[in-house]
Amino acid sequence: MHNKTITELAQGLRAKEFSSVELTQHFLNRVNKHADLNAFITVTADLALQAAQLADVRIAKGEAGLLTGIPMAHKDIFCTQDVKTTCGSKMLDNFIAPYNATVVDKLNAVGVVNLGKLNMDEFAMGSSNETSFYGTVKNPWNKNAVAGGSSGGSAAAVAAKLAVCVTGTDTGGSIRQPAAFCGVSGIKPTYGRVSRFGMIAYASSLDQGGSMARSAEDCAILLQSMAGFDAKDSTSVDTPVPDYCVDLNKPLTGLKIGLPKEFFTSDLNADMAATLQTAIEEYKKLGAEFKEVSMPNLKYAIPAYYVIASAECSSNLSRYDGVRFGYRCENPADLNDLYTRSRGEAFGKEVKRRILMGTYALSSGYYDAYYLKAQQVRRLISEDFKNVLSEVDVIFSPVTPTPAFNIGEKTANPIEMYLADIYTIAINLAGLPAISIPAGFINEMPVGLQLIGNYFDEARLLNVAHVYQNTTDWHKQSPT
Amino acid sequence: MTINTEWETVIGLEIHTQLSTKTKIFSGASTTYGAEPNTQACIISLGMPGVLPVLNEDAVRKAVIFGMAIEAEIAAHSVFARKNYFYPDLPKGYQISQFELPIVGKGFLDIEVDGEIKRIGVTRAHLEEDAGKSLHENFHGATGIDLNRAGTPLLEIVSEPDMRSAKEAVAYMRKLHELVRYLGICDGNMQEGSFRCDANVSVRPKGQEEFGTRAEIKNINSFKFVEKAINHEVERQIELIENGGRVVQETRLYDSVKDETRSMRSKEEANDYRYFPDPDLLPVFVSEELKAEIKAALPELPEAKKLRFKTDYKLNDESATILTSSRDLADYFESVVKISGCESAICANWITGELSAALNRADLEIATSPINAERFAGLVARIADDTISGKIGKQVFEFLWDGSESADEIIEKQGLKQITDTGAIEAIIDTILAANEKQAEQYRGGNEKMFGFFVGQVMKAMQGKGNPAEINKILKAKLA
Amino acid sequence: MLSVIEVKEIAHLARLGIEDENVSAYADDLNGILMLMAQMSELNTDGVKAMAHPMDQVQRLRLDNVTENNQRDYFQTIAPQTEDGLYLVPKVIE
Question: Is the ipTM of this complex over 0.90?
Answer without folding.
Answer: yes
